[in-house]
Write a structure and sequence with these properties.
The chain is mostly helical and 87 residues long. It contains five helices and no strands.
């Protein structure tokens, strides 16, 4: 649940007309258009986190200086770790 805070904005005539036209065309209230613009400009933390996480996917995929991850995992699994888990 979101708690909304009320605020007052002063817009020049050009901004007001542009918002009014867009509001009528889209059927969206001016207040929602302003909220969308603020959200787009100053961000949605969840969207930023998702974008950052997607940037990490496959980051080291083409590194030639690292060992093959499948081989590395197999070597780990062959060690004493499995014997400890089996107990």
């Amino acid at each position: 649940m979101y708690i909304m805070k009320r605020t007052q904005l002063y817009l020049d005539d050009d901004m007001w007309k542009a918002l009014h036209i867009r509001s009528r065309q889209s059927g969206t209230p001016i207040s929602e258009l302003v909220r969308q613009a603020v959200r787009d400009k100053y961000g949605n933390p969840l969207a930023h986190r998702r974008q950052a996480m997607r940037a990490w996917v496959g980051l080291w995929r083409d590194r030639s200086d690292l060992p093959d991850s499948k081989i590395y995992l197999r070597q780990l699994r062959r060690g004493a770790r499995l014997r400890r888990i089996a107990l």
